[in-house]
Specification:
Chain lengths: 371, 319
């Protein structure tokens, strides 16, 4: 045990000489969180212009409707109507300074009153199909509210909804938990790379290979230290989220550590194997770090996996992050014990176990071969 | 794009209705979609009124009125928004059917003849990411390695002009980044079937960004003098620039604050300049000349900074 402690302290000292890399789980993740908060955390109303040529009253009523129809995404109106003249509106639309133009024809009110097929022109951006989709389904919200406002006979089927919590969890918070998992992953990976890189640069791999003792004495401290730093960076990130977004796992913290720790061990073993095997060290490091980043994007980093199961590509299911991210969201954001906790735990333990097996095997093979 | 879960077609679970209005609702749900693109709702009939992990719609009576009640599971506001909007759109189809000639028709005039799949934009915005990442990462690593392996001493003692050395490094990084761009461009073209109208123009637009990234990489390498931290700096800046620099959509389509910050990032003017070459020659640059001047300014400034840092970190060291 004393030997293990000495090796552990030796490895720990390596970290002190490279604090920037030791923060590998924090720096990129913080940038990513800030970027997503800027992207989706601000007001997301579509700026549009409305050209009202209507001779009657309904055109203005329609314009007044826009402000009152609120999106759950950011608790702001779906549309922000900009006060532009028709010529200004077209210029702004062509230069993509506004998202669209609604044109209300001069006989709009008359046609509504007479029941003669009233129409509205909606000019809108469709450079990506998601934005085009939003225009179409947002316009439905506006027309729905407009019908209610002008008091025409009610719909044949009313609308109601139930959300399981008193307050809705916003999208940035969902993304932030994906980033917590990324933070643990990168924290572990970067710290393992510090340890293997120093071993390669210091040419102590030969000493390890010649050691008559089991290589577990060398590999276990590296794994423990890297996992510990992964968890520290992840916890620091949770603190950032607590201060910024207001979510904290509370009594579920140990469960969060367990799930993220097992994911971290999987990636740490990949880093261990690559760190010792790769002939071109940096290519291996770059490959594994970018791999972790890609898995963040395709493995539920941006949306809930359970709610979008069909959209998850099969490659993502080959990595533990995809299984772990939603139970962690349950624990941190929804403060509820995941129904699938133990089955997920089993899967993550399986991933970690297999990774330890392969990581240790390849690392030991490499070290002994050198010896 | 489906890999990051942005898909226009949503599966919506509906409790198998027993009433005629319920069947009409399902028919209406199938009508919600783009006339020039995909459907937005794929109704999935279920027996149980439990939202599970997502949602379920049940047709019930509330105060004597038939009502489509949508129950949500533990999901976020974006998913709620999308599900709510789709439900409203389907119910509006029913309402308009009942109103007949009194119902309002929204005549659609999209900007482009087709709704372009998000993959095309996403892919186009990844080209600057690839260029930046390759140049900054390799720049940082190569420079840091000179310190780690001690070859920096040879540069220090060399009679060759330091400008020639830096030019050679920048040229190498430009070639590497352009190679990354070509590989990604071909891959994206094969996946999406969309190719730019001028490949040379794409390369020319990317050149200032590649120079900027190369300079950032070289500076990181010279300052940290260690491979891993310089790689980390390149990685963090590349992803931050990609995300804030219009990686998920044109800057003007997000909040005013985001747009202001995004316009400071070199990726944004680059993407706005690339846009017409992928999107039927449509211009979206707010100030085309300003964007070019901005990129030129960044490039020149960083080239000067690289020279200054090189003088400080390499040439000014005691021999």
């Amino acid at each position: 045990m004393r030997r293990l402690w000495i090796l552990f302290k030796t490895e720990f000292n390596v970290w002190r000489h490279d604090p920037i890399t030791a923060m590998g789980g924090i720096i990129p993740c913080l940038f990513i969180l800030i970027a997503f908060a800027l992207l989706f955390g601000g007001r997301l109303s579509f700026p549009i212009a409305v050209v009202n040529n209507d001779q009657g009253q309904y055109g203005q009523t329609l314009i007044d409707t826009f402000d009152g129809v609120i999106s759950p995404l950011d608790n702001q109106p779906y549309y922000e109507v900009r006060p532009l003249s028709e010529s200004q509106a077209w210029k702004a639309f062509q230069e993509y300074r506004i998202e669209g133009i609604w044109i209300i024809p001069e006989d709009f009110s008359e046609r509504i009153s007479l029941g003669k097929n009233p129409e509205i022109e909606m000019h809108f951006m469709n450079y990506n199909d998601d934005r085009a989709k939003n225009h179409r389904i947002y316009s439905a919200e506006i027309i729905w509210a407009f019908y209610q406002k002008i008091g025409i006979p009610g719909p044949p089927l009313e609308r109601a909804e139930q959300y399981p919590l008193p307050e809705m969890v916003d999208w940035v918070s969902i993304i932030s938990i994906g980033i917590v998992l990324l933070s643990v992953t990168l924290g572990g990976v970067f710290n393992m790379f510090i340890l293997t890189y120093k071993a390669q640069m210091g040419k102590i791999i030969l000493e390890m290979g010649l050691s008559p003792r089991s290589l577990a004495w060398v590999l276990v401290p590296k794994t423990v230290l890297a996992t510990m730093f992964g968890l520290i960076t992840g916890t620091l990130f949770l603190v950032i989220i607590r201060l910024w977004l207001g979510f904290w796992p509370g009594g579920y913290l140990a469960a969060v550590w367990l799930l993220t720790g097992l994911v971290g061990i999987f990636w740490i073993q990949i880093a261990l194997a690559i760190g010792l095997i790769a002939r071109n060290y940096m290519a291996g490091a770059v490959g594994s770090v970018l791999g972790a980043m890609i898995i963040f994007f395709i493995g539920g980093g941006l949306s809930m996996v359970r709610a979008n199961q069909d959209a998850v590509t099969w490659i993502a299911w080959l990595f533990p992050n995809t299984y772990a991210v939603d139970p962690i969201r349950d624990l941190v954001l929804f403060h509820t014990w995941p129904l699938d906790f133990y089955s997920v735990l089993g899967k993550l333990a399986g991933f970690a176990g297999i990774a330890i097996l392969f990581g240790s095997f390849f690392a030991a093979k490499k070290i002994r071969n050198l010896g | 794009m489906s890999t990051i879960m942005v898909v226009p077609t949503f599966e919506m679970r509906i409790v198998n209705p027993a009433s005629a209005i319920g069947n009409d609702f399902i028919a209406a749900a199938k009508e919600v979609g783009s006339p020039i693109g995909p459907d937005y709702i794929e109704p999935i009939l279920v027996e149980e009124a439990s939202p599970g992990h997502r949602q379920v719609i049940e047709i019930i009576e509330v105060d004597g009125k038939p009502t489509a009640l949508q129950r949500y599971g533990y999901i976020d506001s974006n998913l709620v928004k999308n599900l709510r909007n789709r439900l409203t759109a389907a119910l509006l189809v029913l309402w308009n059917n009942e109103l007949g000639d009194q119902g309002i028709t929204v005549q659609e005039y999209p900007w482009l003849p087709n709704d372009i799949p998000y993959t095309v934009y996403f892919g186009m915005a990844m080209i600057p990411l690839a260029a930046y990442l390759a140049a900054a990462m390799i720049g940082g690593y190569v420079m840091a390695q000179e310190f780690e392996s001690g070859t920096i001493l040879a540069y220090r003692l060399s009679p060759t002009s330091f400008l020639a050395i830096l030019t050679a490094k920048l040229t190498r990084l430009m070639i590497t980044a352009l190679t990354a761009v070509v590989i990604l461009y071909v891959a994206l073209g094969l996946i999406t079937g969309v190719w730019s109208s001028s490949f040379l123009a794409v390369l020319a637009i990317l050149m200032p960004l590649i120079l900027i990234a190369s300079c950032i990489g070289l500076i990181a390498g010279m300052i940290t003098q260690s491979s891993l931290p310089s790689f980390l700096i390149a990685l963090a800046s590349a992803f931050a620039f990609w995300l804030i620099g219009s990686g998920f959509g044109l800057a003007a389509g997000f909040s005013p604050l985001f747009e202001k910050i995004s316009r400071l990032i070199p990726n944004t003017p680059v993407i706005e300049m690339l846009f017409p070459y992928f999107y039927f020659s449509k211009q979206v640059a707010a100030h085309p000349l300003g964007a070019k001047l901005q990129l030129s300014g960044y490039t020149i400034t960083l080239l000067i900074v690289v020279i200054l840092v090189y003088k400080d970190r390499v040439l000014a060291k005691e021999r």
